[in-house]
Amino acid sequence: MSAKRVDSTIVVVAVAAAIVGAVALLGVLGQAWMGYAPSHLLTYLPMILLPIAFALVAVALVRAALRRRQTEVGQS
Fold this sequence. Notes:
The chain is mostly helical. The chain has one domain (about 5-70). The chain has two helices and no strands. The chain has helices at about 5-35, 40-70. The protein is rod-shaped, with a radius of gyration of 18 Å.
């Protein structure tokens, strides 16, 4: 697998985890607003997926910084 494909995969997984986590969080808030007890699944999904998404974004940023540091354009 090329480095570009790995970076794209990391970003896609991070975005998907963030979207699913955010939708689950909105579901918890909606259920609480309506007076229902939020389900356990909707409660745990944001607690697990949002930190994973932020960690994956951090990994993608570090990989981009390291790749940029390795490529020297010229002497300034």
